[in-house]
C-alpha cells in the first residue's frame, strides 16, 4: 500500500483503495464459496447474486426505474458507437443527430456514419472543443431516431452540467467518463452507456441503461451480440459476461453507497476536488492556461497547458518524483490532464494542488 502513487490516469483509472483491498481479500475464495469470482460459473448462484446486487446498486444510486433495462456488455464504449445506430436506426428513423463536443463525440459520429445517416447538430471543432453549445445552438431534426452527446469529453475536459433538451427525440449519452459522478434524472434519457474503467470499475465492462420501449427497435437480423434486446432478454448472460469486472462494479457501487453516502455526496466531493485545481489555474493565468472555457470545465478531467514544452516535461518529471503520476495530456490538446474521477481521494488532489503552486513559484 505504501508504494501506491496518486495516479491521475484518464482510464483505466484509480480505484478506491478499500475496493481493491476487499477484492484482494476475497481473491482466493469468495466467502462461503470456496473459489474466487474468477473461477466460478456466471450461472452459479454466487455469481448471479453478485450481478443482481450490482444492478440493484446502480438502480438505487441513479434512481433507475423499471422502465429501463440495465445491461452489462463488453466491447467498450467504442462498440456502443456502432451498436447504438445499428439498433436505433432503421425503418422507423433513418438518421440521427450528433453533438460534437470533443474527440469522443467525433469518434462516435464517425462510427455511426458507417451504419446510417448522421447529421451534425453542433461541432465545436473550430475552437478545438473548448466550449459547449446552449440548447438554442443545436441544429436538431425532429424526425431523428435519436440525439447523441458526450456528457464529459475526457480528452478536452469539457462537461455538460445539464443534459441538452431534445424534446421528444430520445437522448443517447456517452457517459463513459462521468458515469455516477452525480445524481442524474435518468427519465430524460433514452439511453446512457459507459465503459467502466474510469468511474465504475476495471476495463472489460460497459454498462448500458436503456428505456425498455427502445429495445423493441432492435432488428432480429442483427448478430446476436450486437442486439440490445437479446442481452435484455437474457439478463446480460446471452454469452459469458465479464464476471470479474461486474464483481468490481458491485464493490465500487457498494463503496459509493456505504462509504461515500450516495451520489449527492459524491457530487459535492467532486466539485470540491475540481475547485482546488481550477483555483490554481485562475490564480496563475499566465502560467497555467486551462483548455476548457471556465463555464464548461469538467469535474473529472482538468486540462491545462504550461508556457512551453520544456516546462511541461519538467512538470511531469517533478510530479512523478512526488508520486503524482499519469498527468500527461492527450496529444490533441497537449499539456497536462489530471483525471480526478470519483475514486481519486481529496488528499491526492490536495497533493497535486500543492505541487502546482510550488512549481509556479520555482519557474
Ligand atoms: C467519453 C469516452 N467515450 C468512449 C471511450 C472509449 O471507451 P473504450 O476504450 O472502452 O471503447 C472513452 C475512453 O476511452 C471515453 O472517455
Automatic annotation (TrEMBL):
L-glutamate binds at residue 43. Pyridoxal 5'-phosphate binds at residues 104, 154, 174, 197, 239-240. Residues 5-352 form the Aminotransferase class V domain. Pathway: Cofactor biosynthesis; pyridoxine 5'-phosphate biosynthesis; pyridoxine 5'-phosphate from D-erythrose 4-phosphate: step 3/5; Amino-acid biosynthesis; L-serine biosynthesis; L-serine from 3-phospho-D-glycerate: step 2/3. GO terms for biological process: L-serine biosynthetic process; pyridoxine biosynthetic process. It catalyses: 4-(phosphooxy)-L-threonine + 2-oxoglutarate = (R)-3-hydroxy-2-oxo-4-phosphooxybutanoate + L-glutamate; O-phospho-L-serine + 2-oxoglutarate = 3-phosphooxypyruvate + L-glutamate. Its EC number is 2.6.1.52. The keyword Transferase applies. Pfam families: Aminotran_5 (PF00266). It is found in: Cytoplasm. Binds 1 pyridoxal phosphate per subunit. One of its GO terms (molecular function) is pyridoxal phosphate binding. InterPro entries: Aminotrans_V_dom, Aminotrans_V_PyrdxlP_BS, Pser_aminoTfrase, PyrdxlP-dep_Trfase, PyrdxlP-dep_Trfase_major, PyrdxlP-dep_Trfase_small. GO terms for cellular component: cytoplasm. Belongs to the class-V pyridoxal-phosphate-dependent aminotransferase family. SerC subfamily. Catalyzes the reversible conversion of 3-phosphohydroxypyruvate to phosphoserine and of 3-hydroxy-2-oxo-4-phosphonooxybutanoate to phosphohydroxythreonine. This is Phosphoserine aminotransferase. It comes from Aeoliella straminimaris. The lineage of its organism: Bacteria, Pseudomonadati, Planctomycetota, Planctomycetia, Pirellulales. The gene is serC.
Amino acid at each position: 500500500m505504501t508504494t501506491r502513487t496518486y495516479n491521475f490516469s484518464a482510464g483505466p483509472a484509480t480505484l478506491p483503495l478499500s475496493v481493491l483491498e476487499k477484492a484482494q481479500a476475497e481473491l482466493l475464495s469468495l466467502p462461503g464459496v470456496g473459489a474466487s469470482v474468477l473461477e466460478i460459473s456466471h450461472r452459479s448462484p454466487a455469481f448471479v447474486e453478485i450481478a443482481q446486487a450490482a444492478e440493484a446498486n446502480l438502480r438505487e444510486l441513479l434512481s433507475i426505474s423499471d422502465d429501463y433495462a440495465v445491461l452489462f456488455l463488453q466491447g467498450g464504449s467504442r462498440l456502443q458507437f456502432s451498436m447504438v445506430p445499428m439498433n436505433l436506426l432503421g425503418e422507423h428513423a433513418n438518421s440521427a443527430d450528433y453533438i460534437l463536443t470533443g474527440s469522443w463525440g467525433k469518434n462516435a459520429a464517425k462510427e455511426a456514419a458507417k451504419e446510417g445517416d448522421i447529421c451534425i447538430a453542433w461541432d465545436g471543432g473550430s475552437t478545438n472543443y473548448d466550449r459547449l453549445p446552449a440548447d438554442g445552438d443545436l441544429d436538431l431534426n425532429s424526425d431523428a431516431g435519436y440525439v447523441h452527446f458526450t456528457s464529459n469529453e475526457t480528452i478536452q475536459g469539457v462537461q455538460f452540467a445539464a443534459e441538452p433538451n431534445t424534446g421528444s427525440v430520445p437522448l443517447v449519452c456517452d457517459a463513459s467518463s462521468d458515469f455516477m459522478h452525480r445524481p442524474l434524472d435518468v427519465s430524460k434519457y433514452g439511453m446512457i452507456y459507459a465503459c467502466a474503467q474510469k468511474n465504475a470499475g476495471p476495463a472489460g465492462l460497459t454498462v448500458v441503461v436503456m428505456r425498455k420501449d427502445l429495445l423493441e427497435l432492435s432488428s432480429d437480423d442483427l448478430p446476436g451480440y450486437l442486439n440490445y434486446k437479446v442481452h435484455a432478454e437474457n439478463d446480460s448472460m446471452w454469452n459469458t459476461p465479464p464476471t470479474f469486472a461486474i464483481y468490481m462494479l458491485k464493490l465500487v457501487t457498494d463503496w459509493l453507497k456505504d462509504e461515500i453516502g450516495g451520489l449527492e455526496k459524491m457530487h459535492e466531493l467532486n466539485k470540491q476536488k475540481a475547485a482546488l485545481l481550477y483555483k490554481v489555474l485562475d490564480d496563475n493565468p499566465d502560467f497555467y492556461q486551462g483548455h476548457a472555457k471556465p463555464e464548461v470545465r469538467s469535474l473529472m478531467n482538468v486540462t491545462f497547458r504550461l508556457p512551453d514544452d520544456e516546462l511541461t516535461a519538467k512538470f511531469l518529471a517533478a510530479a512523478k518524483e512526488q508520486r503524482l503520476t499519469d498527468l500527461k495530456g492527450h496529444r490533441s490538446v497537449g499539456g497536462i490532464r489530471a483525471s480526478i474521477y470519483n475514486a481519486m481521494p481529496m488528499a491526492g488532489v490536495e497533493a497535486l494542488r500543492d505541487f502546482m503552486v510550488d512549481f509556479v513559484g520555482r519557474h
